[in-house]
């Protein structure tokens, strides 16, 4: 995996970008927790050219002050793909990034060979509301997003660095990432996607963890109903992060979808 900085929108943004692999282009949009190069992306890069940008204001990406609301987020990702010369790509998004992926696929439906939505945000039902992560403690978030809190990824989420300097850096990054996500998702992650989602024409995979307590699995059926060209898959023994908790099962479904 290589890291590089990509200048976007005439230098308004300098985007920390993770990239690996060869073959057809796959763009990955990360969730509210930020971006890490995890085993899912590493495995995906064995078959595809994977490109994963840090949203402005997260990681080392700059320009967060130019992103005021969700619309700015949508156009940022389109500007990023323009800057990278990307067209006819496979688009994958997780959680908040899944919502962003659905929005940009609705804005420019002919640009994407396929769309994959991993536990996406963007819809809302009073009958099964999405939990408010800004009102939850770290252990409560872990219990909500993982089927098994003893999973190594869950334990990594809960780990507290013993080195004060490292702890301080972690807290700064978490604050930056959470503040940016709040611009899009607070107080509820429903900004009208349901009014635009019908424009998605790319073959779309909606994939959800059966044990997701953050964004209940009922939303999978809602996305499937609203996207005409979609297939819905439920991953057993996985929560909100199926690509981490059940990497092989998730990868199998995604690779089959990408073809």
In words, what does this structure look like?
- The structure is a single chain.
- By secondary structure, this protein is α/β, with parallel strands linked by helices.
- 37% of the residues lie in helices and 19% in strands.
- The protein has helices at 39-44, 70-84, 96-107, 138-145, 152-158, 164-185, 218-226, 242-245, 247-258, and strands at residues 2-8, 13-20, 25-29, 49-53, 89-94, 112-118, 204-209, 230-235.
- Strands 1-2-4-3-5-6-7-8 form an eight-stranded mixed β-sheet, sandwiched between helices.
- Helix 2 (70-84) packs across helix 3 (96-107).
- The radius of gyration is 17 Å and the shape is globular.
- The model has no long low-confidence stretch (mean pLDDT 94).
Give the SSE layout.
Blueprint (H helix, E strand, L loop, with lengths): L1 E7 L4 E8 L4 E5 L9 H6 L4 E5 L16 H15 L4 E6 L1 H12 L4 E7 L19 H8 L6 H7 L5 H22 L18 E6 L8 H9 L3 E6 L6 H4 L1 H12 L1
Parallel strand pairs: 3-4, 3-5, 5-6, 6-7, 7-8
Antiparallel strand pairs: 1-2, 2-4
Helix pairs in contact: 2-3
Which features characterize this protein?
single chain; 259 residues; alpha/beta; eight-stranded mixed sheet; 8 strands; 37% helix; 19% strand; globular
Quaternary organisation of the protein chains: single chain
Strand order of the largest sheet: 1-2-4-3-5-6-7-8
Radius of gyration: 17 Å
- Helical proportion, percent range: 25-40%
- Please report the distance between the alpha carbons of the first and last residues: 23 Å
Number of strands: 8
> Biggest β-sheet: count, sense, barrel?
8 strands, mixed
């Amino acid at each position: 995996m290589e890291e590089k900085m990509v200048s976007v929108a005439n230098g308004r943004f300098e985007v920390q970008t993770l990239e690996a692999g060869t073959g057809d282009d796959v763009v990955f949009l990360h969730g509210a927790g930020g971006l890490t190069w995890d085993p899912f992306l590493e495995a995906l890069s064995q078959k595809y050219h994977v490109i994963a940008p840090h949203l402005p204001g997260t990681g080392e990406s700059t320009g967060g002050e130019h992103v005021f609301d969700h619309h700015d987020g949508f156009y940022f990702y389109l500007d990023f793909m323009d800057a990278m010369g990307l067209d006819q790509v496979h688009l994958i998004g997780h959680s908040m990034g899944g919502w962003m992926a659905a929005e940009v696929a609705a804005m420019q439906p002919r640009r994407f060979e396929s769309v994959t939505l991993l536990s996406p945000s963007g819809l809302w039902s009073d009958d099964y509301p999405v939990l408010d992560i800004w009102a939850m403690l770290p252990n409560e978030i872990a219990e909500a997003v993982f089927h098994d809190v003893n999973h190594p990824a869950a334990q990594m989420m809960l780990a507290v660095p013993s080195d004060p300097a490292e702890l301080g850096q972690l807290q700064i990054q978490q604050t930056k990432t959470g503040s940016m996500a709040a611009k899009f998702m607070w107080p509820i992650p429903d900004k009208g996607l349901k009014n635009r989602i019908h424009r998605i024409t790319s073959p779309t995979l909606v994939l959800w963890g059966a044990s997701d307590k953050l964004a209940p699995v009922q939303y999978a059926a809602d996305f499937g109903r609203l996207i005409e060209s979609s297939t819905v898959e439920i991953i057993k023994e996985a929560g909100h992060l199926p690509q981490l908790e059940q990497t092989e099962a998730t990868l199998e479904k995604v690779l089959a979808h990408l073809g």
